[in-house]
Amino acid sequence: MIEAENEPDPRKGLRMALEGQMRVAIHEGITMPAGITLDIAQVFLDPMSRILSRCQRQGLIRADLDPERDTLRILLMLLGVLPTFSPGNEGWQRYVSLVMESLVHTPTEPLPPAEPIVDPWQRGK
Fold this sequence. Notes:
This protein is mostly helical. Helix content is 55%, strand content 0%.
């Protein structure tokens, strides 16, 4: 993640961070959020939020993203595709590209407000 944060082009750093998180999840057998906690996820989320913020400051991605609230949800969306691939298949990279494109392109309309994060691992406890 340090390499992604230090990448001169923050868009490339963002892609590196997303791909790195997916590879770690696959390596650790985390194909869905079960088995991790918000504290564990935060290790990935803080650096990625900083990269998103840097992209915004440079005008490279949508200004209406909320790095603190949207980062976890973007990661969870991507993790959600992993069970649909055979082991060793890297078809998930298509969805990283789709997410990247959705962040970079000029929006046709603003996003709805970013809602506060509810810890999905603490529900029902």
